[in-house]
Structures are given as C-alpha cells and as structure tokens.
Known about the structure:
By secondary structure, the chain is an all-alpha fold. The protein has one domain (2-118). The chain contains four helices and no strands. The protein has helices at residues 2-17, 27-49, 55-79, 84-118. Helix 2 (27-49) runs parallel beside helix 4 (84-118) and helix 3 runs antiparallel to helix 4 (84-118). The radius of gyration is 19 Å and the shape is elongated.
Amino acid sequence: xxxxxxxxxxxxxxxxxxxxxxxxxxxxxxxxxxxxxxxxxxxxxxxxxxxxxxxxxxxxxxxxxxxxxxxxxxxxxxxxxxxxxxxxxxxxxxxxxxxxxxxxxxxxxxxxxxxxxxxxxxxxx
Length: 125
C-alpha cells in the first residue's frame, strides 16, 4: 500500500525540484493532466484499501481520463469556451471524495489497532 504513496511523493519531489518553464498556452492542458494523474493515484490507493486494485484498470483509467480531459480543453479552446473547467470540476470532486475515503479508512484502521492494543491484544514487557 505504501509503494504508490511513495511513488507519488517522489514524483512530487522531483517535479518540485525541477524548474521547467511551461508556456502559457499549455497551462490549461497541464492543469487537467495533473488532476487526471492525482485522480488516478488516489483512486489506486482507494482501490488498494478496498482490496480491489487492478493495475490495468489504473493505467487505462489514467490514460482515458487524461485523453478526455485534454480533448475537452482542446475543443474548448477551438470553440472559445473554457470546457477544461468541466474536467477540473469533475476531477476535483473525485479527488476529494477519494481522499475522504482514504482518510476514513486509515483512521478506522488506526482506531482498530489502538483498541486491539489497549484491550490486551499485545503484551508489553
């Protein structure tokens, strides 16, 4: 379970350390790509906690979401409408829902472990 989280943290560290200038015309595309990546990462962590993880679903979901979001951003640029905001909204909502689930599951696991140890499940000494 910690491997995807470690990969996410390493990726954030590398991305923060490298100063790569992004032209302004690509900012919309980059924003939806980052949200698609975060949505997939948190969805993968949620699937691990639910014991339903499948790497193929994670990868196909990532590329499908990124492609659809980029297509929306491109189509919106061509029409003169900010359609990329639809992808930003959907990914944002899903991101917070997945994060809330992960937080609840980790907190519940911590409480179970704490109750087990305080109920005499472990012997100290």
